[in-house]
Amino acid sequence: MSEPLPTAAPPAAIPYVYPLDALYARAGLPLPQIEKIAPEDLPEPYRTLLAHTNDMTPTLERFHAKSIHLKILHREQRGDNYFRQVVLALDGSDKPVEFGANKVSLLLFPPKARQMILEERLPLGTILKECGIAHGTVAKAYFQVIADQLISSVLGVNSGSTLYGRKATINDSQKRPLSEVVEILPL
Q: What is the pLDDT of residues 116-155, one digit of tens each?
């Protein structure tokens, strides 16, 4: 009688980096090394850029003094949820300033905003502002991440570089989650 073959373990889910962990799992990729840290352990300027309750798009636009556009790396729609991996890049230079993953609850957006999300041209923070959608951002966790091949290639950093990020939830005025987002910054 032969021994059963060992099966590969699925990539581990890490709730404080959802939906990034789910998108990595669906692609069959192992998660990079990620460690949860306290906001006070974020080095500057990461702390200023991550430890707040603001939308990331205008925060990064102020920091870099340029407008930002969206590049879609991967997208999928499951029912009323829209998942995507993105890079935010500076207008003009195309320099990447964020790698992110988000889950968007499409039904909670008015039709115009939903259409803009699915057109995939503007960052979510820009759409929220342009459509006048009342919302609040709640940072749920902060972490350091060692850039893997995917992150290093899309952000233009060396593989093995230590970067920092956050998990946040964007809620509507009724405290319903419009989006769960993971944001990783290169500096």
A: 999 999 999 999 999 999 999 999 999 999 999 999 999 9
* Residue of 21, 18, 47, 43 whose CA lies nearest to 140: 18
| 102 closest CA partner among 127, 121, 123, 131 | 123
Q: What is the pLDDT of residues 54-91, one digit of tens each?
A: 889 999 999 999 999 999 999 999 999 999 999 999 99
61, 68 Cβ separation under 8 angstroms: yes
Cis peptide before 32 (omega within 30 of 0): no
Token pair in block for residue 167: 């998990």
Report the C-alpha gap between 109 and 20 in whole angstroms. Answer: 22
The token pair that represents 140 in the structure block: 């749920």
Find the distance separating the first CA and the last CA of the chain, reported in whole Å: 56
Please tell me the pTM assigned to this model.
0.90
Task: Assess contact for 83 and 23: CB atoms under 8 A.
Answer: yes
Q: What is the DSSP secondary structure assignment for residue 4, as one 8-state letter?
A: P
Nearest by Cα to 90 from 72, 110, 67: 67
